[in-house]
Amino acid sequence: MAKIGLRRAVSAGIRSFYPADPDELRKMLRQFSANTRRKVTGKVTALIAPHAAYLYGGQTAAWAYRQLDGTKYDRVAILAPSHYATFPGASIFEGSAYETPLGQVELDTDGITRLRKQNPWIDYYYEAEAREHSIEAQLPFLQYFLKNFLLIPILMHDQGYANCERLAGALEKEMTSNRMTTLIVASSDIYHGPGYERARAMNQRVAGLIQKMDPKAFHASAEKGKIQACGYGPITAAMMLAGRFGATGAQIHDLTTSHDVYPMSENFVVGYLSAALSM
After folding, report:
1. Closest CA to 73 of 167, 145, 166, 158
2. Of 93, 97, 161, 240, which cross-links 168 as Cys (Cβ 3.0–4.6 Å)?
3. Would 63 be classed as within a structural domain?
4. CA quadruple 160, 245, 90, 79: dihedral sign
């Protein structure tokens, strides 16, 4: 298959995840930003943010990204779950940039080349990108709050602990091998299912485990079904990395559900969380 230069936006537009019109999108992001404030006092090592449609989870995601005020990072590594494709290891887009209505986000092709060369289990699977929203939904927030950065977009289907460990190890080696400052973003929604109170209780359990900064306990709880998070693997790997790079705490900045935003039927409720892991 020939290489693809640009990864087109597939999650923008009417009845999709966020507006396709750049002015409308900026207006929405400004409104989200106006309802947040920076609370972190130390250096942010990693963020956890939802990848839901902005009408539902956008305000929660903005709380995470607002913690980047006054900071600068050379690049961002987004760790995200694959919702539609199955594959081993990890998948990284092989082109040069991602596209959103706010412009193109250039990939760190040198860093990605090193990751692939040193870790043959990291590959590119076209089917992983074809419909996936979990990375793309984070990009307008990064473009709005962080401005200039290079991107390492990583999708995971295998969220087993061993795969989380080897991904964290590969990124740790890459992050320590050069002077580029790197922000880690774990992309994940939380509870999916019936019941508003059940969703709230699950949110609290997830938040409590993240605050403990214990990736093994968090992952084990997800594997046993005690908590839900569609991106529990990315969250686990992000917690591993944050701890190795000096993060000592996790602050939860927003914890909500789709029912809080649009209180309709409780037949299906989704939970959202934003957090910053910082020194």
Report:
1. 145
2. 240
3. yes
4. positive
Mean pLDDT (whole number) for 244-261: 95
CA atoms within 13 A on the CB side of 77: 30
Classify 137 in phi/psi space as left (phi over 0), alpha (psi -120 to 50) or beta.
alpha
Q: How confident is the model over 15-58, as pLDDT tens digits?
A: 899 999 999 999 999 999 999 999 998 899 999 999 999 999 99
Whole-model pTM: value is: 0.96
The per-residue pLDDT for range 204-214, each reduced to its tens digit, is 999 999 999 99
The Cα 264–Cα 217 span in angstroms is: 34
In a domain, 226, yes or no: yes
Answer whether residue 111 is part of any domain. yes
Could you identify the residue written with the tokens 């935003």? 261
Identify the band that residue 236 occupies on the pLDDT scale cut at 50, 70 and 90: very high
Say which residue the tokens 């760790």 belong to. Answer: 79
